[in-house]
């Protein structure tokens, strides 16, 4: 009898783990966040391999170019049912700056972040929601830090139209040294074939005393299995005459 009880507990544990794996989703890639929460007792590691940004502008009539590579990472672990802790780091950063025939290379470390993400039960099989309270602590080197801490509250609402298409919107409200900013990121995700899927997003941001900022992004996600994925993405900023691009590769694993 005890053997059957043990087998039953093992089977229930396996079914529970499978359910968690099916409901869980990574926050990479893209500028928004997902509504999935890391199960209790599990750790999600989301790593840039690396993330890339490129800016090209004009200073005193002469073009300047800046290329930045950083190995950003995010660790997520479940604290309770529907609640997770997030620890992030902008990682090691390498930057190359070119202007008027001169080239300068610098490297250092970026800022760290800590956050709590909570799932909101909307009692709908297709509609999900999550809230993220986060603090970005300005601990990085001078060239790669925000200089002042940033405190933010982010909401994400996702609607699954079908097994092939889904949509979501992320709203981020942040405060830095008494200055406020708001960012809206509507996103559509779609299955392409087999384990390959894609996403497209529009980014709108308005910071206090700053011009409106706009951007477009798109990318691909390949699911290695229920607990691991590879991603590739690219984005462009649509602000003024300056050229600005971002993107990169990433690996995400659920342990």
Describe the structure.
The structure is a single chain. The chain has one helix spanning 2-23; strands at residues 43-59, 62-70, 73-80, 83-89, 92-99, 102-109, 112-120, 127-137, 150-160, 165-176, 179-193, 196-207, 213-225, 228-237, 243-254. The protein is mainly beta. A twelve-stranded antiparallel barrel has the order 1-3-4-7-8-9-10-11-12-13-14-15. It is globular, with a radius of gyration of 20 Å.
Q: Structural class, from helix and strand content?
A: mainly beta
Task: Give the SSE order as H and E letters.
Answer: HEEEEEEEEEEEEEEE
Q: What fraction of the residues are assigned to beta strands by DSSP?
A: over 45%
Could you give the order of strands across the largest sheet? Answer: 1-3-4-7-8-9-10-11-12-13-14-15
Shape: globular
Low-confidence stretches: 1-22
Strand and helix layout:
Layout: H1 2-23, E1 43-59, E2 62-70, E3 73-80, E4 83-89, E5 92-99, E6 102-109, E7 112-120, E8 127-137, E9 150-160, E10 165-176, E11 179-193, E12 196-207, E13 213-225, E14 228-237, E15 243-254
Summarize this structure briefly.
With 255 residues, the chain is mainly beta. The protein is built from one helix and 15 strands; from the N terminus they run αβββββββββββββββ.
Q: Characteristics of this structure?
A:
single chain, 255 residues, mainly beta, 12-stranded antiparallel β-barrel, 1 helix, globular, disordered N terminus
């Amino acid at each position: 009898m005890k053997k059957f009880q043990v087998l039953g507990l093992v089977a229930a544990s396996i079914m529970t783990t499978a359910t968690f794996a099916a409901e869980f989703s990574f926050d990479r890639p893209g500028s928004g966040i997902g509504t999935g929460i890391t199960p209790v007792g599990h750790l999600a590691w989301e790593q840039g391999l690396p993330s890339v940004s490129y800016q090209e502008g004009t200073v005193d009539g002469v073009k300047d170019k800046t290329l930045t590579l950083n190995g950003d990472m995010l660790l997520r672990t479940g604290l309770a049912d529907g609640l997770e802790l997030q620890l992030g780091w902008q990682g090691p950063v390498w930057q190359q700056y070119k202007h008027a025939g001169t080239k300068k290379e610098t490297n250092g470390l970026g800022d760290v972040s800590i956050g709590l993400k909570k799932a909101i039960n909307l009692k709908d099989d297709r509609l999900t929601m999550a809230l993220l309270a986060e603090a970005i602590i300005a601990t990085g080197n001078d060239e790669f830090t925000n200089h002042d801490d940033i405190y933010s509250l982010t909401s994400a609402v996702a609607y699954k139209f079908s097994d092939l298409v889904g949509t979501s919107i992320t709203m981020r409200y942040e405060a830095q040294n008494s200055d406020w900013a708001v960012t809206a990121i509507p996103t559509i995700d779609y299955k392409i074939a087999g384990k390959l899927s894609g996403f497209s997003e529009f980014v709108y941001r308005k910071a206090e005393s700053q011009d409106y900022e706009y951007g477009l992004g798109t990318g691909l996600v390949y699911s290695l299995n229920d607990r691991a994925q590879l991603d590739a993405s690219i984005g462009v900023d649509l602000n003024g005459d300056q050229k600005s691009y971002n993107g990169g590769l990433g690996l995400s694993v659920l342990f």
